[in-house]
User: Fold this.
Amino acid sequence: MVADVLNRESPPSVSWSRVSYAEAVPGVQSPLSWCVWDLSEASYRRAYTLLCLLPRAERTVVDDVQHRFAAPFYGRGAFNMDMFGWALSALPGATRVAAKQGYFASNATYTDIASAWRRAWVRVWIPLYMLGLPARLRALRARSAQRWNRGLAALEDADGAQARRVLREAIDGFIAEVAAQIALSTGIVSQLSAAVQSLARQAGKPDLALALVGGFGATEELGMTADLQKAAQGYLPLREFLQRHGFHGPLAGELSSHSWREQPELVTSLLRTLSSGAGASGREAAELEQHSGRAAAEAALLGALPLHRRVRARIIFACVRTFLPLRTTTRAAFAQTFDLIRAAARRLGKTLADSGVLERADDVFFLSVPELFELPVDPRATVAFRREKRAQYEKLDLPLTWTGTPVPIPLDDPTETRAQTLEARTISGSGVSPGIVEGAAQVFVDSSCLEEMQEGAILVCNTTDPSWAATMMLASGLVIDIGGLLSHGAIVARELGIPCVINTVNGTRRIRTGDRRRVDGDRGVVTILEPTP
Assistant:
């Protein structure tokens, strides 16, 4: 019997959330893509034991869904919030709140099941862990780039055995890089975010909190958008751009999708869009304004704090400037290695198709990771079964949160959803990048048609990844279905000074391209001004 790797059952008492997971891994995954992401179960356990949030005995990966950090349901990944509640319970209370709100857009409360000794030790250990961490993460990023270049060169004429060797090395790197991202995000960025919000409240200036977690400028993604602009202006050859950033692309979290290095025409479309728009030319000015805004917010907050609290505040600000931008560094590292896994799988698929094992090279994405190293008895039957299952799951939708095994629902009737929109006239979410803007909406289901983005429009989407960053430069505002304060779209919006409302849940289904909308990034509200007919 062929195993359905895209669906599991949950015990009735376990709580699940697709928020955050759906940001990195949107839509219904191909079986191989899910299996690669499922390997990050080892990453979570490695990261949380490294931070001492969990005892070292918990480093071993188990198959029991109840005790895993993530599992697939009808082709979509979800996080086990009970497991995260267990791990996060060792963090200080304010940090737990910041992590749940920032990554899961959740205000759920969890029982403090970590011992007092563990919570005390975590407070001591994490500052020690931070020593030398920036250098370690930059070295990890450099290894990722070297592995990608070396692996792609080796795969050009690789046979099956060589492709598997590249694949195994890439998988090992991917697990380590995702672990680094998790440790940085959970152990450090969440604590700094909580500390900034606490300082802002103490100073009586809570409205400064958003300005204090943006305006860093020199991040990897903004470097990519700068290179895109140079390429659009003819200052950077396309080949050189792809050597630096070719691992990005539409639906980057899906292994079977094609990255920019595979389909350079996707980049040339973006270049045409950028070269014809004046908005992108103001990118540097916007970044400068955000940088100045953060510096002004720091000064204002320091001036409002008592003298005895200013030293600690300066230390927190210095740590924020150092560590928050590193999230894009570690994210780029595992994204680049993920693309190498894509390349190795595609090469292996070609060798299997050439030998008649598979009908087509891309059938490889319907096998699991273990099956790439030891083929199933009937590979073609396995592919056919899983292809049919995935097609079934693509006709279904799931809620963002649930308890037990979710009940799938057919995709919504757009007519009914539209009627609900016109009746409500407002959509609520979380304000994660301040400012108010009005304009015509452009709704994108995925990033495959971003060259159609009009300068000054309000970009409405389900979620974002780095391939969206260039188009975001043309937008006047952002409305995103899924995410929180520390999500990718929120971070980039703050860097570019674009008002953003996130976690609207169903904004892409309630807003139509052409609607005139007001986006209030302070209050987290999207208001319909003039609907399209």
About this structure: The domain at 414-530 is CATH 3.50.30.10 (Glucose Oxidase; domain 1). The CA atoms of residues 31 and 93 lie 38 Å apart. The first helix runs from residue 21 to 24. The radius of gyration is 23 Å.
